[in-house]
Write a structure and sequence with these properties.
- By secondary structure, this protein is an alpha/beta fold.
- It has eleven helices and eight strands.
- It has two domains: about 15-145 and about 245-315, Alpha/Beta hydrolase fold, catalytic domain (Rossmann fold); about 145-240, no CATH class.
- Strand 1 and strand 2 (about 25-35) form a beta hairpin.
- The longest helix has 17 residues, at about 190-205.
- The chain is globular.
- Strands 1-2-4-3-5-6-7-8 form an eight-stranded mixed β-sheet, with helices on both faces.
- Helix 1 (about 90-100) crosses helix 2, helix 4 (about 160-170) runs antiparallel to helix 6 and helix 5 crosses helix 8 (about 225-240).
- Bound molecules: ligand STX.
- The site of ligand STX has 11 residues, from loops.
Length: about 325
């Protein structure tokens, strides 16, 4: 097998784009890149509410893959922007089925990081017959302990500097439940209250994503259009516990993944989604392999993570 490249493939443009109406309110943006006859792969972005970016196309050899990307409800180029109504995990799973059918694909590879891993796992557990294989990074299982770790107490002990603006944005009396306090502000009728909360929420996440933080990396998270969708949609999903029927739902249903090959890539120093998540998932899913990256945090763009993901897409390019 030829060695996988260490850096992303060259930038590409879609050969086809779609606006798919998925509910009375929502229309989602879908694009296809690479080789129309290639291995179908669905890129599942993070957040929820993060949207796709052009460089996300570059994890896949465009000669070997039919690369499908979509912006989930309420974010990126999907409309209406930052909308929370008719926006649940199960709506997104249904949207993925609608995309699959629209494109005439029977089985595909799923590629998702962070919330993209959560949603890919939910889809695969619901529709294993349509999944050839899963490539997952920065595993997020949306358990209550994981939400508490990042938004209430945990990462705060490692990043007290970045934590300061996040928790002082909320008055002392409300700090016992920061998620709830943010939810109130993120759904305020006052656009200024919404935006300030969205920026504080979003910058917290942007400041903690990489092993070695970069100033411009966090700056994008303060951008109003991005922050509003990202913070509102994330907080809405987490207030609703991912819309799962119980805590630990994904691990409890992991047996549904039996027979689906998986490659899990996770940074040792991921403080948004601790390595324990990937460990627990691997143990519940014997057909997966866990690749721990010794010198990386949570971000998809860190060098060791990029190299491991490129190696994974090279391996799955010919999966039957
Ligand atoms: N949210 C984790 C997540 O899915 C708890 C995520 N974090 N940052 C991102 O996604 C983007 C880089 C996609 C914005």
């Amino acid at each position: 097998m030829p060695a996988a490249p260490m850096t992303l493939f060259a930038p590409i443009e879609p050969y086809q784009t779609h606006q798919l109406k998925v509910s009375s309110i929502h229309t989602i943006y879908v694009e296809e890149c690479g080789n129309p006859q290639g291995q179908p792969v669905l890129f599942v972005h993070g957040g929820p509410g993060g949207g796709c970016e052009p460089w996300h196309r570059q994890f896949f050899d465009p000669r070997k893959y039919r690369i499908i990307l979509f912006d989930q409800r309420g974010c990126g180029r999907s409309t209406p922007h930052a909308e929370l109504r008719e926006n649940t995990t199960w709506d997104l799973v249904a949207d993925m089925q609608a995309i699959r059918k629209m494109l005439g694909i029977e089985r595909w590879v799923l590629f998702g990081g962070s919330w993209g891993s959560t949603l890919s796992l939910t889809y695969a557990i619901t529709y294993p017959q349509h999944c050839k294989g899963l490539i997952l990074r920065g595993i997020f299982l949306l358990r209550e302990a994981e939400i508490r770790w990042f938004y209430q107490e945990g990462t705060s002990w490692l990043y007290p500097d970045a934590w300061q603006p996040y928790w002082t944005h909320i008055p002392e009396a409300e700090r016992g439940d920061l998620l709830k306090a943010y939810y109130g502000r993120l759904t305020s009728p006052d656009p200024a209250v919404r935006l300030a909360a969205a920026q504080a929420w979003s910058v917290w996440e942007g400041s903690t994503a990489r092993l070695i933080p970069s100033a411009d990396g966090a700056a994008r998270f303060a951008e109003p259009q991005f922050a509003e969708a990202f913070a509102r949609i994330e907080c809405h999903y987490f207030m609703n516990k991912g819309f799962f029927e119980r805590d630990g739902y994904l691990l409890a249903r992991a047996h549904q993944l039996h027979g689906i090959p998986g490659i899990i890539v996770h940074g040792r120093y991921d403080v948004i989604c601790p390595l324990r998540n990937a460990w627990d998932l691997q143990r519940a899913w014997p057909q997966s392999r866990l690749n721990i990256i010794a010198d990386a945090g949570h971000a998809a763009s860190e060098p060791g993570i990029v190299a491991a993901l490129l190696d994974a897409t090279e391996q799955f390019a010919t999966l039957e």
